[in-house]
Design goal:
Elements: E1 7-11, H1 16-27, E2 31-36, H2 39-51, E3 55-60, H3 66-73, E4 80-83, H4 98-126, E5 129-134, H5 147-167, E6 172-179, H6 201-212, E7 222-225
Parallel strand pairs: 1-2, 1-4, 2-3, 4-5, 5-6, 6-7
Helix pairs in contact: 1-6, 3-4, 4-5
């Protein structure tokens, strides 16, 4: 099915899942607005997208900075927002620093307000739009070391369902994608052969595309994506 060209705003677009999402939508012919903090990585993404014949507008931005987000995004006409930016420090609660705790809240929770609040009024005016947020099965499946990260992802699920009820009469869809373990450099890890059992970032990007590119009358509000592969001993799926 051919879908109309849309403007897709992806946060945390420079690496991992966000990069895969940006590349996927660009490949499908959509205009990508790529948001991340690192200029060099955004430049690489933009070059890769343009080399493949797509379009990409990079925006260097810390999504936890509310004033900067408003200045950069409030005047953009965005058809689809993919709230992907996220950080996770996975270790025992008593070992978390105040700075680690605050950063997870700022990026995983507060940035949802800043970014979504910046683009929703435009969606309301046009009476169409889609807010798709990357959650995690860690938001409902507890694990040691996930006190803050898991809490922020539980927030994502509750926030999105409440928002869905508020905005659907304005023609705006709200969805949450909840991946299991994904082979990325999340939490400071380096991807290695030990990650072969995990989902690939492209798997999550395909799921996001499935959710976003549904017909206008169809809403997939929540989608959980897991690997069928058996996890290595000591790892959760």
């Amino acid at each position: 099915m051919t879908t109309p060209k849309q403007t897709i705003l992806v946060t945390g677009a420079s690496r991992g899942i966000g990069r895969a999402i940006a590349l996927r939508f660009a490949r499908d012919g959509h205009d990508v607005v790529a948001v991340a903090r690192t200029r060099a990585e955004l430049d690489v993404l933009g070059a890769d997208i343009r080399a493949a014949g797509g379009t990409c507008r990079p925006i260097v931005l810390d999504v936890a900075d509310g004033a900067a987000v408003a200045a950069a995004l409030e005047n953009l006409d965005v058809d689809v927002l993919v709230n992907n930016a996220g950080v996770g420090v996975l270790k025992p609660f008593v070992e978390l620093t105040v700075e680690e705790w605050q950063r997870m809240l700022d990026v995983n929770v507060n940035a949802l307000f800043h970014v979504t609040r910046a683009v929703l009024p435009g969606m309301f005016r046009r009476k169409v739009g889609h807010v798709c947020t990357i959650g995690s099965i860690g938001g409902r499946s507890v694990f040691a070391g996930g006190t803050c990260y898991g809490g922020t992802k539980a927030f994502v699920t509750a926030w999105a369902e409440n928002l869905m009820l508020e905005v659907r009469d304005h023609g705006v869809k709200v969805s949450v994608i909840m991946p299991g373990a994904v082979a990325t450099e999340f939490n400071g890890n380096q991807v290695s052969d030990k990650d072969a059992w995990k989902l690939m970032p492209e798997d999550v990007a395909d799921a996001v595309a499935q959710v976003v590119l549904t017909p206008p009358h169809v809403l997939i509000h929540r989608l959980e994506v897991r690997t069928l592969t058996v996890a290595a001993k000591g790892h959760a799926k």
